[in-house]
UniProtKB/TrEMBL annotation:
SUPFAM superfamilies: Acyl-CoA dehydrogenase C-terminal domain-like, Acyl-CoA dehydrogenase NM domain-like. Belongs to the acyl-CoA dehydrogenase family. Gene3D superfamilies: Butyryl-CoA Dehydrogenase, subunit A, domain 2, Butyryl-CoA Dehydrogenase, subunit A, domain 3. It holds the Pfam family Acyl-CoA_dh_1. Keywords: FAD, Flavoprotein. This is Acyl-CoA dehydrogenase. It comes from Kitasatospora arboriphila. Residues 239-387 form the Acyl-CoA dehydrogenase/oxidase C-terminal domain. The lineage of its organism: Bacteria, Bacillati, Actinomycetota, Actinomycetes, Kitasatosporales. InterPro entries: Acyl-CoA_Oxase/DH_mid-dom_sf, AcylCo_DH-like_C, AcylCo_DH/oxidase_C, AcylCoA_DH/oxidase_NM_dom_sf.
Length: 567
């Protein structure tokens, strides 16, 4: 699998309009150059020039308008993921303004309010960005608690008063989807999602809450007039719209993380390979080869898992909601792998990773944010656990899911329905992907560990008391997540003809990761003697193969000088 390289990039899998816009985005950043990229980051300069480019090209309008709002456009997860990766490659701030526009549009495209839908489509065509007014300073993204209060005005509308915190694009958004509750209705029936305009006199911008190039706002509404025609959702539908919007939006974190790691890897490998210490290239040291090879294998796995997840998003339906497991996996697992990739490279380049004129310095800071957005790692791990029983033990039959890069509108994402029933979702047999690659030594070794997890859950399942111990359960969740991760990596490897050496190297890492989490489980205070014995019994060494490692290393070494952003 190839890393994204602006020098040779040609998204030939897409239609002409998509190819032109993706390539134009790459060309805009490349012509702008590295100095401007770095200077604006250091100066925390608002990225108005990027938004001007996006508006001129109609980038957001083309990619983020579903066909239900404009038959000439579509919401296509495959090309959205592609743009996530490109924007992450050049900087988190550029990705962030696009990401929060996606979140802001979620409640709109799920709404039956045609007036607001038309307004949003028009604003996008004019080059505006959007915002998602959900989180609050006191409650975070806890949508059960909101202090944004809507008081009936006696004329069919409301006045809204309250503040929102950590709201991207809140300084300039043409439309802000705001979540609140009615003052006169208790419980879930009182929830309301409505559309606000940051330019309105009753909309007060308080401040930027982060010390960064991006604008993450605190804003306050003071008796903001909410007309009946501004209301997007009420009652439980508003609650579902919030969760379903996050389902759509948090998927984007994985490909942003991939883009960040790719740019950083070109810099790190090029620096290390051309630096001489003690009479040797840095890349001749055994530990450096190991760390950079591990980083490369993990990055390829991130791309494989994320690409395959796109296919499940695009084929989703009321009868096939498997994407609801793979989605928190991309948010939790892929983004934390991104942190590992950066840390492995940073161990190699050391002080170089702090230098102001590098991209790596920015990547090392920004990569930390992605696991912490759209729900913490712990929240998403807890969510993943809901699927474990059916996934491991109760498979169902599904038609094969192909790679999906066709020019189709992913309209189901805006009619997901009630956000419940996760434990009842069925999956195809995870063992099939492992069986297909049983001849790969480390796939076979990891399969032993995966089968062992099933045996643990059948023979020594968490007790009622342990099920109340989230610290214990999260370690079980980490073990389970590795099985899911491996499955989609294998599926995508099969579909793309991934080099067998690279696949074996990826599972070398997964075997070690499973062993590490088994060791953590062994050390938990609430782990029983039987569970602890199981944990030690399932610590495995990867299958070593020096020749394979050398062949994979040659792929890493070839990244030296393969790309450098022009000055």
């Amino acid at each position: 699998m190839q890393l994204f390289n602006p020098r040779s990039y040609d998204p030939a899998q897409f239609d002409d309009t998509t190819r032109r816009l993706l390539r134009a985005t790459v060309d805009w950043f490349e012509s702008r150059g590295k100095k401007a990229l770095i200077d604006t980051y250091i100066d925390r300069a608002w990225y108005a020039d990027f938004l001007e480019f996006a508006a001129k090209e109609g980038l957001f309008a083309e990619f983020l308008t579903p066909s239900s709002a404009d038959p000439a456009k579509r919401w296509d997860t495959a090309r959205i993921a592609e743009l996530n990766e490109i924007l992450g490659f050049y900087g988190l701030g550029y990705w962030y303004t696009w990401q929060v526009t996606i979140l802001g549009l979620g409640p709109v495209w799920q709404s039956e309010n045609e007036a607001v839908r038309a307004r949003a489509a028009q604003l996008l065509s004019e080059g505006h960005v959007m915002a998602f007014g959900l989180s609050e300073r006191s409650h975070g993204a806890d949508i059960y608690s909101t202090d944004m209060v809507l008081t009936p005005d006696g004329e069919g509308g409301f006045t809204a008063t309250g503040s929102k915190y950590y709201i991207g694009n809140g300084n300039v958004a043409g439309l802000v989807s705001v979540f609140g509750r009615r003052s006169d209705v208790e419980g879930p029936e009182g929830y309301v999602f409505f559309a606000a305009d940051s330019r309105h006199e009753a909309y007060h911008l308080v401040k930027n809450v982060v010390n960064a190039q991006m604008y993450v706002s605190e804003f306050r509404l003071e008796e903001y007039p909410v007309r009946a025609e501004d209301v997007l959702h009420t009652g439980k539908a508003a609650f579902d719209a919030a969760l379903n919007t996050v389902n759509v939006g948090k998927f984007n974190l994985c490909t942003a993380s991939i883009g960040i790691c790719e740019h950083a890897m070109y810099e790190a490998v090029t620096h290390a390979h051309n630096r001489v210490l003690y009479g040797k290239r840095v890349t001749e040291f055994a530990h450096v080869k190991r760390e950079l090879t591990d980083a490369y294998a993990r990055l390829v796995a991130m791309k494989l898992f994320s690409s395959r997840s796109v296919d499940y998003f695009r084929t989703a339906s009321p009868e096939d909601r498997r994407y609801l497991l793979f989605n928190p996996m991309t948010k939790m697992k892929v983004t934390t792998e991104g942190e590992k990739v950066i840390d492995l490279m940073w161990d190699v380049i050391a002080a170089k990773g702090f230098e102001a004129d590098t991209y790596f310095d920015k990547a090392a800071k920004d990569i930390r944010g992605l696991p912490k957005l759209e729900g913490t790692v712990h929240v998403n791990l807890a969510l993943i656990l809901k699927f474990m029983g059916n996934y491991l033990f109760n498979p169902a039959e599904f038609a094969p899911v192909p790679n999906r890069v066709d020019a189709a509108d992913d309209e189901f994402l805006f009619r997901q329905g009630p956000a419940r029933g996760l434990g009842a979702i069925r999956f195809h047999d995870w063992r099939t992907a492992y069986d297909t690659h049983a001849a790969v030594p480390n796939v076979a070794r990891f399969r032993e560990q995966a089968d062992g997890l099933c045996a643990l859950l059948l023979a020594h399942a968490p007790s009622a008391e342990q099920q109340q111990d989230l610290d214990f359960l999260l370690e079980i969740g980490q073990l389970f997540a590795l099985v899911v991760y491996g499955q989609l990596v294998l599926e995508q490897a099969e579909l793309t003809g991934l080099d067998g050496d690279v696949l074996d190297q990826i599972f070398d890492a997964l075997v070690r990761d499973f062993s590490a989490h088994a060791t953590e489980l062994h050390g938990k205070s609430s782990t029983t003697e039987e569970q602890a014995a199981w944990a030690l019994a399932h610590v495995r060494r990867p299958v070593a193969d020096a020749e394979r490692a050398a062949r994979v290393w040659a792929k890493v070494e070839a990244l030296s000088g393969a790309y450098e952003m022009q000055p």
